[in-house]
Q: What sequence folds into this?
């Protein structure tokens, strides 16, 4: 009977063939990639939310659009809300100065503003979703890679047992149990990736919903010079602006 101290993860790695070691390296790389994305994008989402709340407070308490423009020029664009505001202001000024000089500028000023703001929101949406496909791929494929490693390990173990002619339970259970380690590793890689993906998707959806609502308020203000009724509420509660769907991402 094989000593108990020789059975375990270290023994499994030592006895693995090149394919088994390759699968283990792939899972390790996937784990590093998923945790890196989760941490980096999580920190970015926290910073984006903090800067966004600060900008919304500043915007609705500013004395004029010139003050908002000066703030953006001084501190730069740090969130989707300031990004949208800067492009919307530039689009309005450009249309007032040059009119519809190009096909992309055709139509009224409001139509040009809507197209510009849709484009900016789409750019921000693409930026927010960058990297999420990697997390989704890791979450969906890691368990199958681990399962494949388990099947391959069991296959090699059974081949080795048949070659020795020893088919007792103690000779079979040890190698088969070791092979199941790969399934466990695959699940350990996939579970954080799936949880991180779902959390980031929800955070992005909340950000984009708030951005859509702010875009409607900003469009009304730039087009008429007046704050719409529901914008008065968002001045006091920027965390939960009312949702209006006049402007939607393309």
A:
């Amino acid at each position: 009977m094989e000593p108990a101290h020789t059975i375990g993860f270290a023994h499994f790695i030592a006895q693995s063939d090149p394919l088994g070691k390759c699968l283990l390296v792939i899972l390790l790389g996937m784990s590093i990639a998923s945790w890196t994305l989760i941490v980096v994008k999580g920190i970015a989402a926290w910073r984006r939310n903090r800067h966004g709340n600060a900008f919304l407070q500043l915007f609705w308490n500013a004395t004029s659009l010139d003050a908002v423009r000066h703030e953006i020029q001084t501190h730069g664009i740090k969130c989707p809300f300031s990004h949208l505001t800067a492009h919307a202001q530039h689009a309005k000024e450009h249309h007032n100065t040059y009119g519809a000089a190009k096909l992309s500028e055709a139509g009224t000023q409001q139509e040009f503003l809507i197209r510009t703001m849709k484009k900016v929101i789409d750019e921000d949406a693409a930026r927010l979703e960058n990297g999420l496909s990697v997390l989704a791929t890791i979450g969906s494929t890691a368990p199958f890679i681990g399962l494949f490693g388990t099947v391959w390990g069991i296959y090699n173990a059974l081949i080795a047992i048949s070659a020795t002619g020893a088919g007792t339970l103690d000779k079979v259970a040890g190698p088969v149990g070791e092979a199941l380690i790969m399934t466990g590793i695959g699940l350990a890689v996939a579970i954080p990736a799936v949880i991180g993906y779902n959390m980031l998707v929800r955070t992005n959806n909340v950000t984009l919903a708030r951005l859509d609502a702010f875009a409607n308020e900003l469009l009304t203000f730039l087009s008429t010079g007046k704050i719409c009724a529901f914008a008065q509420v968002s001045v006091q509660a920027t965390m939960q602006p009312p949702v209006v769907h006049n402007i939607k991402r393309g």
